Amino acid sequence: MTRRILALIVGLALYGAGDALAIRAGLGVDPWTAFAQGLSLHTGIGVGWITNFVGLLVLLLWIPLRQRPGMGTVANILLLGTVMQATLAIVPPVEGIVVQFALLIGGTLLVALATGIYIGAGFGPGPRDGLMTGMNTRLGWPIWVCRAIVELTVLAIGWLLGGTVGIGTVIFALAIGPLVHLSMARFARVRHDGSAEASIAQSPIEGDSTAQTCPRQDSNLQPSD
């Protein structure tokens, strides 16, 4: 249990840091982060704090979907945006296409690595992933359809609000699924007896977020997040 809790905390922290690097790259971010960015621009509240707040609001949508949050759900809301905000305070904006792409790639790899770590802990999906899996359960729609509807909607709203949407958004969408798949295969759920059990989630989104194949809360849904 101690190892699993540590994996959950480390995974979510790395996820928040990876998202922050993608933001600093300035080339485009994933749908949920673009949404948070847009809200941040109009409220003056840090994008990390907005990410936490949005996670809490999304959790309320679980009620009609009859989803039950777990430790991982609560930790996601508390840690992901907080670490994102802290990282943004440390890493300044950058200039130059080479440096920007370096941060984008580094951030994407970090998010994929983090996803495999915290999903492997086995403490349940994050609020955004749970929303999509809940729609799948209650409405009977395929995960990829639920994910597409949710993520395209928040991406469009985020773009209209001024969130960063660009080549980075496309790269993240195409790369995160395969990368998370590899990460999840590497970081299998660690049992109390120390043995590892592979737990590769169904695809669609969580990817929970995208035309990418991400595992639930994994890469098939987003992260983020």
UniProtKB/TrEMBL annotation:
Task: Using the UniProt annotation, give all residue ranges assigned to the region (Disordered).
Answer: 200-225
Q: Where are the transmembrane segments?
A: 46-65, 72-91, 97-120, 141-161, 167-185
Q: Which UniProt keywords apply?
A: Membrane, Transmembrane, Transmembrane helix
List where Polar residues composition bias occurs.
Answer: 209-225
**Family matches, as InterPro entries:** YczE/YyaS-like (IPR038750)
Give the PANTHER family listed for this entry: INTEGRAL MEMBRANE PROTEIN, INTEGRAL MEMBRANE PROTEIN-RELATED
- The identity of this protein, by name, is Membrane protein YczE
What is the species of this protein? Microbacterium ginsengisoli
Its lineage opens with: Bacteria, Bacillati, Actinomycetota, Actinomycetes, Micrococcales
